[in-house]
Amino acid sequence: MFALPLQVIDKFLLQYNLGQVLLLVFVLATLAALTQRSLKIIALQTMTFGLLFMLVPSIDGPPLYLYLGIGLLMVAPMAYVSAGR
């Protein structure tokens, strides 16, 4: 019963590497966090994804995602400190 949706998801994800999937999830999660209108939530989420981009795709993808993770980890604490609520 659940095998068909899992096969469709598996075929879709096999076309992409882990860094690309994480980037898509990051964009979708940021859009979802924008509805809360809290810069602290977005900053914490950005820190989490920055750490994920630094640790996970270094095995699987190009070093572009490593640099993206470093950039996110540099920007997110500044956004957290400057957040009002």
Automatic annotation (TrEMBL):
Domain DUF8006: 4-84
Pfam families: DUF8006 (PF26028)
Record's keyword terms, sorted: Membrane, Transmembrane, Transmembrane helix
Classification of source organism: Archaea, Methanobacteriati, Methanobacteriota, Stenosarchaea group, Halobacteria
Organism: Halococcus saccharolyticus DSM 5350
TM region positions: 12-34, 41-59, 65-83
Protein name per the record: DUF8006 domain-containing protein
Domain of life: Archaea
InterPro entries documented for this protein: DUF8006
